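pinging the channel bc i need a second pair of eyes. not urgent but kinda urgent?? the chain im working w is below, pasted from the shared doc
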Amino acid sequence: MPKLFRLKLTQLVSAVLLAGAVVLSPLQAIAQTKKIGSSGFPVPRFVSLKSDKVNVRGGPGMDHSIVWTFVKVRLPVEITQEYDNWYKIRDWEGKSGWVFKTLLTGYRSALVTPWEDAPAKTPLRRRPGPNEPIVAYLEPYVLAGVLECKDGYCRISGKDFEGWIDQERLFGVYNDEEFE
């Protein structure tokens, strides 16, 4: 008798869990598509590092260990989650961790094709468009400020260059994102 009861109880628990999953699925979908974080800004979104030393932690809080440290200011990162004053970020390699919000800035920057190796080069154009004159070629990992994006191209600038680049060649902006 106890074995039969356990089986029925197990079946009942499975049915309840399954029903709960059906009920929770739409709620989870809503939570995953949430567009505004506790900061009042969209999540996910791209920002950049405010300092040349930014500790990334394993969780949201000082009690979590440092898992790595960024050592270059203005690198682009994607905020994927917010918790109180802590933001979960993702870098161009896909690594995630938590940083305190004051270590980030809304300044828009991008890395040129960090997923490719040299000698790959990306054309920088005078104006947006695939047939516009090329003013330079940029190698992977070039860091640039993003001034605007429209029609699939972004106007970027750096120490010795300024021009338009195919938006899909950048980490730091979304492919369909437009802004001035």
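so Residues 45-107 form a domain with the SH3 type barrels. fold (CATH 2.30.30.40). and The CA atoms of residues 112 and 170 lie 5 Å apart. — does that match what u expected or am i reading it wrong
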